[in-house]
Structure formats: structure tokens, C-alpha cells
Specification:
about 375 residues, alpha/beta, Rossmann fold, 3 domains, six-stranded mixed beta sheet, about 15% strand
Length: about 375
């Protein structure tokens, strides 16, 4: 077994005191550039590995991290990043990282802003969060929160929706533009010439939702630049998607208007809501592509009523979000500013693998 290299071993080889080595390791105190360089050189030669856990516990430092997510009772998709964050919390809670959860109403930028103000409010002990993990579903409000945190020197990790602001510590999630391109590519397979495809946002206020805008742009780009099928792309939004009767009427109107409709791309997790309102014969005639492996979507995938689902790995988003803040705050390590996750194409034939992973959500939340 390889003998562990100790601080005292590094000190002896470098000709300095153990205290000097400790100051170099933790980047504190005054150490001359020459001694610092020599210590780092010896550490590398001896293969010294810092015992991070012991160092953290010895210092006894604690950090408070706020997590701001949509209320998953309004949309089951958001239970997945929450479950990922919970799993990460259990792994790092013994190393001084304390997690506090805040939830906002899914379609309310006003409630997002209200919860953001609650997070940034100075506590009785005069402190604010040491870090924030959030999903900036609303472009304007998300950028405002990043600006406030930048002024307060609070590092932020964002998931699911990327913002171009350089004031974030890191973004973790899908490349929204490329996910739109991918959806178009999938929908293009088997689509005859001069047919119509629809990109449908079942949401409210998509013009303030950067990830939806980018999906639409990527989708349109593919059909504008690849192939010679002259496919017509229709971009639509329907806000009253929770009213089944209104949604049914809206969809029936689309079928009647676009008689040469070949397929529909749903930009979020709500493809199942539309399928519930469509005649089964219509569903079988057109291709349907949606996002996210929630149970309702997977059931329709199994029944061949959804052709493809694009998985954005939301559990990993939540998990890596907490891990990234842990590395930055506790381990003082540099983190990647952009952490793109793969876009998985899920079909009926491979869905069983993803379903098993999906069951981890309830397990993570009850363990």
C-alpha cells in the first residue's frame, strides 16, 4: 500500500516549517514567492493529496446556500431537479454546506421576484446566503437577480435556462438552441415535401423565457437551412393549457386549419396535456416530439402516441448545481462556467432504462 504523504513530509523535503506548507495549501498568510514555488514543486514530486474532508472539518466553517425552484406541485418535471439537489445535499451536509429551499409559482415572474427578495434579505445575524442555485425561467427577473447577487458578491449557479450574463458562476443544463435543432431533425425524418410542422409552446409569457426562444430559433434554423422539402414551420403559443376544453378546441382548430400537418414539437414537458385532448386517430397520423421524462409522457411514449422524448437530465442539473457550489465555496476550486449536459433521445425501445432512473426521484426524496 502506498504510504500517504503528510504535510510534515513536504516540509522536510522543502526545507520549511509545517506551518509554511499549511499556509501554501490554504493560500493564506505571508509566504515568499520562492518558498511557495518550492513547496508546490515538492508537493507535486511527492504526490501530496490534500485531505479536503479533514481540512474542512478542522476549520469548522459553515456556508448557507439558497435553492430557488418552481413549485413541483404545479409541474412534475420540477420534482426531478429538486430530487437531484436533495441527493447532493445529503452528500455535502457534513462538510459545512447548509441548504435552504424556496419555491415560486411556476408561471409567476412576480412570485419569483418575491422569493428572490426573501432570499437576499439580511438575516438577524447580519448575513446573507453564501451562494444561490436557481432556474431563471423568466429572463428579466433572472438577470435582475444575477445583478443583485453580483453587487453583493454572492456566487450563483443557474440550471435549465442559460443567461448570457457573465455574472453567473456556472450554468448547468441543456443547450436550448441545439435542443431545438435536434427536435427539428427528428421531426424531419419521414416528413414529406411541402408539409406543415408546428412548434407549440404550452406556456405563458414565452417572450420572457429565454430557453423557449432559443428552442424556437434552433428549430426554425434547421428547416431553413437543411434539406429541400420546403417544410412550413408554424410557431404558436397557448396559455390556457390547464383548461382541457379550451385546449381541445384550440387543437381541433389547428387540425382543421393545417390539413397537411405532419408533426408537432412541444417545447416543454406538457406534450401529454395535448394528447389527452386529441382524437387517437389524429395522434397516430402525426409525429409528436416532446421534452422530459415525466410519467405521463412516458406512458404515451409506450403507447406510440409520442414518437420521441428529449431528456434534459434534470436530476443531474440539480445534483451538479449543489456540487458546483460546494466545490467553489468549500473546496475553493475553480469550476467550469458552462456545464452542458447531453440531450438524450428517448424512444419506446429504450425507455425502460430511463424509467428505472426516473424511479430514483421518489427514492431520493424519501431516503
Amino acid at each position: 500500500m502506498k504510504k500517504r504523504v503528510r504535510i510534515i513530509d513536504v516540509a522536510e523535503h522543502a526545507g520549511v516549517s509545517p506551518g509554511t506548507v499549511d499556509r501554501v495549501i490554504h493560500n493564506r498568510g505571508k509566504v515568499s514567492p520562492e518558498k511557495r514555488e518550492e513547496v508546490l514543486k515538492v508537493m507535486k514530486e511527492l504526490g501530496y493529496e490534500r485531505n479536503i474532508a479533514a481540512s474542512i472539518l478542522a476549520k469548522g466553517e459553515n456556508y448557507r446556500v439558497a435553492v430557488l425552484l418552481p413549485d413541483y406541485n404545479e409541474d412534475p418535471y420540477w420534482k426531478q431537479p429538486f430530487a437531484g439537489a436533495e441527493e447532493a445535499r445529503k452528500q455535502v451536509q457534513h462538510f459545512g454546506l447548509n441548504i435552504e429551499y424556496y419555491f415560486f409559482k411556476l408561471l409567476s415572474p412576480e412570485d419569483f421576484d418575491r422569493q428572490a427578495r426573501n432570499i437576499l434579505k439580511t438575516q438577524p445575524d447580519g448575513t446573507r446566503p453564501d451562494g444561490i442555485l436557481f432556474s431563471p425561467l423568466f429572463l428579466n427577473e433572472g438577470e435582475e437577480l444575477l445583478n443583485k447577487c453580483d453587487n453583493l458578491n454572492i456566487p450563483c449557479v443557474i440550471i435549465n435556462t442559460n443567461l448570457q450574463s457573465s455574472k453567473k458562476l456556472s450554468y448547468i443544463g441543456q443547450h436550448s438552441y441545439q435542443s431545438g435543432v435536434l427536435a427539428a431533425r427528428l421531426l424531419n425524418f419521414g416528413t414529406p415535401k411541402k408539409r406543415t410542422v408546428i412548434i407549440l409552446n404550452l406556456t405563458k409569457g414565452s417572450t420572457n423565457a429565454k430557453h423557449l426562444i432559443e428552442k424556437k430559433e434552433g428549430f426554425q434554423y434547421y428547416f431553413d437551412n437543411y434539406g429541400n422539402k420546403k417544410v412550413k414551420v408554424v410557431n404558436l403559443e397557448f396559455e390556457e393549457f390547464n383548461d382541457n376544453e379550451k385546449l381541445k378546441t384550440f387543437l381541433q382548430g389547428l387540425i382543421e386549419k393545417y390539413t397537411n400537418l405532419s408533426g408537432i414539437f412541444f417545447t416543454n414537458s406538457r406534450a401529454y396535456k395535448a394528447i389527452q385532448c386529441l382524437d387517437e386517430k389524429i395522434v397516430k397520423k402525426i409525429k409528436i416530439i416532446g421534452f422530459d421524462l415525466i410519467e405521463s409522457n412516458l406512458n404515451y411514449l409506450r403507447e406510440d402516441k409520442i414518437n420521441f422524448l428529449i431528456n434534459q437530465n434534470p436530476i443531474e442539473q440539480g445534483f451538479l448545481g449543489i456540487q458546483t457550489l460546494y466545490k467553489h465555496l468549500v473546496e475553493k476550486e475553480a469550476v467550469e462556467p458552462i456545464q452542458y449536459l447531453p440531450l438524450d433521445i428517448v424512444v419506446k425501445e429504450n425507455m425502460q432504462y430511463y424509467q428505472k432512473r426516473g424511479y430514483q426521484v421518489e427514492t431520493l426524496l424519501t431516503a
